[in-house]
Amino acid sequence: MTTDIAAETLKLPSLDYAALAPMLILFGVGCVGVLVEAIAPKKARFPVQLVLAVLGIAASLTAIVLAAGTEKVTAAGAVAVDGPGLFLQGSIAVLGLVALLLISERSLERGGAFVAQAAVTANSEADRDQATRGSGATEVYPLIIFSLGGMMLFAAANDLLTMFVALEVFSLPLYLLCAMARRRRLLSQEAALKYFLLGAFASAFFLFGIALVYGYAGRVDFAGIHAAVLDSPNDIALLYIGLAMVAIGLLFKAALAPFHVWTPDVYQGAPTPVTALMAACTKVAAFGGLLRVLYVAFERSQWDYRPVLGAIAVLTMLVGAVLAVTQTDIKRLLAYSSIANAGYVLVGVLAISKAGLASSLFYLVAYGFSVLAAFGIVTLVRDADGEATHLSRWAGLGRRSPLYATLFTFLLLAFAGIPLTSGFTAKFGVFAAAIEADQTWLVIAGVITSAIIAFPYLRVVVMMWLSEPGESTPAVSLPGALTAAAVTIGAAATLLLGIVPQPLLDMTENAAHFVR
Amino acid sequence: MSLSPYIPIVGLFALGAGFALFSVAIAPFVGPRRYNRAKLDAYECGIEPTPQPIGGGRFPVKFYLTAMLFIVFDIEIIFLYPWAVSFEALGVFGFVEMVLFIITVFVAYAYVWRRGGLDWD
């Protein structure tokens, strides 16, 4: 009898495989990557994994391009495939591919930037041994592929539960990757533990927020929440507290103040290629999720959340800019810079308009390319003990290696938003959208903090060009082909998006429509 | 809304708490006192939490590996059971999905096996 009842009520979800293909391909490739780890002989793993990962991401990107123009909700309402979703997925794939080049570099450091066994006690004999020789773990490839797949799902999730699962799928591999730096093992382990503990807290907030929103709306899908905001008989306080807690989870991932505290420590301790991946791809994914939640599910509450998130944007820009001034480590400086930049993206997001959505998408891509190239150069400035990240070591770098100092100067100017760089186009876009939406106060804060944060950038520039190289100034290592390619792509994109931004601007403009 | 359906739950909670308190309170009076080493250990099996060498030191993770592997299969069973119950309703689609699910679980299992996670020593 029971089966008959089940047969009547049970409806199988319709799956649009073409629209889901970008994520399915990556998850499939991730599983194959784990099998390669299990079966392939040790020597063969690195080339096999590299080829597999590149092909996987390329295939996923192809599927995204083929799906362009799709606007539908599929998999029983769990996944929305629309303009912003596909654009974000495409950005994650492209930026992930460039980050993968940095991650795969093995000529700077014998065996790559990763250790074979991250659990070995730091500073023990076995640890020193594996730091100086031995090939790094190739498990990083499946981890990165799973993480990228999770990010893509996060940007396309159409209900809060799918979003939570995607959040965990892309976060858990990142926690592990942070712990695998070849040098400065203690810092790396500390970074991973901090990121994990705080990330778990943020996930708990997010999950509890989902429960409260469900209590208010009776649904977890975004269309249902959207409908319930207008006519739910339940106490509106449930909605406010729920939205606040969901937002905390998202703001944590996007590293917005006051939920940014993990960022400098994690960015500093993690292996630099992984830091680049986090600064570029995780930011895209986190803002993708935030955009969808704010624009699709809670659009009708915008008058309630806009002032609060506006205050958070101002605080983020201020904290990022002011604390960047005091930094003495290049990776921490770039971390605070990424916090400030997250604040600028939030200004665009808070326009709550088509222009706001389009300019935020543009900003995320432009910043992603610049930050990948910047961290790529950080991996090159090194001595026998690994990367020389203390700022004093960068003094006089312009004399030692003019090419890389010029490139880094250019990237810093892009972060500062100087015209003819992508940073200018991107900032102009978000500020214009915010003014159009009567959020002038955010723009005023944005301009003031841009002036403040230009100071630490220029200080690095002055240091590189106007000081004499000291004894401790390391020579810049000759990059391998992979790092050179990644830095070139990042810097070229920064320049191109500054001079001829129109194709990408048109693309974001066309993509900027969410399906509900 | 009537709260009456919750009264049995409260009753059960009180009963449970009462039993626990009673057991702890009565044990020193009626139980025999025969101490041995095992009774003073923190756990009856697994790793001794103390004493540890200064600065940490290494400890075996094989218990954790076993526990985690157990959880993997435990979760698999949790998903298999409802599928088995409504196998006919789910049809070929459910069967294919379940096979895919089991394959992904075995991918993890194959990794653990090849990397020596199943060797005790």
Automatic annotation (TrEMBL), chain A:
Q: Name the reaction it catalyses.
A: a quinone + NADH + 5 H(+)(in) = a quinol + NAD(+) + 4 H(+)(out)
| Bilayer topology term | Multi-pass membrane protein
Sequence intervals crossing the membrane: 17-36, 48-66, 86-103, 140-157, 193-217, 237-262, 274-295, 307-326, 333-355, 361-381, 402-421, 441-466, 478-500
Listed InterPro entries: NADH-Q_OxRdtase_suN/2, ND/Mrp_TM
Task: Give the record's keywords alphabetically.
Answer: Cell membrane, Membrane, NAD, Quinone, Translocase, Transmembrane, Transmembrane helix, Transport
Q: Name one GO cellular component term.
A: endomembrane system
Localization, per the record, is: Cell membrane; Endomembrane system; Membrane
Enzymatic class = translocase
Q: Where is the NADH:quinone oxidoreductase/Mrp antiporter transmembrane domain?
A: 157-452
Q: What is its EC number?
A: 7.1.1.-
Q: Name one GO biological process term.
A: ATP synthesis coupled electron transport
What is one Pfam family matched by this protein? Proton_antipo_M
Q: Which domain of life is it from?
A: Bacteria
| Chief place of localization | membrane
For molecular function, the Gene Ontology terms on record are: NADH dehydrogenase (quinone) (non-electrogenic) activity; NADH dehydrogenase (ubiquinone) activity; quinone binding
Described by its record, this protein's role is as follows:
NDH-1 shuttles electrons from NADH, via FMN and iron-sulfur (Fe-S) centers, to quinones in the respiratory chain. The immediate electron acceptor for the enzyme in this species is believed to be a menaquinone. Couples the redox reaction to proton translocation (for every two electrons transferred, four hydrogen ions are translocated across the cytoplasmic membrane), and thus conserves the redox energy in a proton gradient.
Spell out the NCBIfam families in the cross-references: NDH_I_N, PRK05777.1-4
Tell me which family the UniProt entry assigns to this protein. Belongs to the complex I subunit 2 family.
Subunit structure, briefly? NDH-1 is composed of 14 different subunits. Subunits NuoA, H, J, K, L, M, N constitute the membrane sector of the complex.
HAMAP family, per database record? NDH1_NuoN_1 (MF_00445)
Q: Under which name does UniProt file this protein?
A: NADH-quinone oxidoreductase subunit N
Supply the source organism for this entry.
Virgisporangium aliadipatigenens
Question: What is the gene name?
Answer: nuoN_2
From TrEMBL, chain B:
Catalytic reaction list: a quinone + NADH + 5 H(+)(in) = a quinol + NAD(+) + 4 H(+)(out)
Q: How does it sit in the membrane?
A: Multi-pass membrane protein
From which domain of life does this come?
Answer: Bacteria
A GO molecular function annotation here is:
NADH dehydrogenase (ubiquinone) activity
Q: Where in the cell is it found?
A: Cell membrane; Membrane
Supply the EC number(s).
7.1.1.-
Transmembrane regions listed in the UniProt entry: 6-30, 63-84, 90-112
Q: Which Pfam families match?
A: Oxidored_q4
Which keywords does the record carry? Cell membrane, Membrane, NAD, Quinone, Translocase, Transmembrane, Transmembrane helix, Transport
Cellular component GO terms, alphabetical:
NADH dehydrogenase complex; plasma membrane
Gene3D superfamilies linked: NADH:ubiquinone/plastoquinone oxidoreductase, chain 3 (1.20.58.1610)
Q: Record's PANTHER family? A: NADH-QUINONE OXIDOREDUCTASE SUBUNIT A, NADH-UBIQUINONE OXIDOREDUCTASE CHAIN 3
Q: Note the subunit structure.
A: NDH-1 is composed of 14 different subunits. Subunits NuoA, H, J, K, L, M, N constitute the membrane sector of the complex.
- What family does the entry list? Belongs to the complex I subunit 3 family.
Describe the task this protein carries out: NDH-1 shuttles electrons from NADH, via FMN and iron-sulfur (Fe-S) centers, to quinones in the respiratory chain. The immediate electron acceptor for the enzyme in this species is believed to be a menaquinone. Couples the redox reaction to proton translocation (for every two electrons transferred, four hydrogen ions are translocated across the cytoplasmic membrane), and thus conserves the redox energy in a proton gradient.
Q: What is this protein called?
A: NADH-quinone oxidoreductase subunit A
- What species does this protein belong to? Virgisporangium aliadipatigenens
What gene is this protein translated from?
A: nuoA
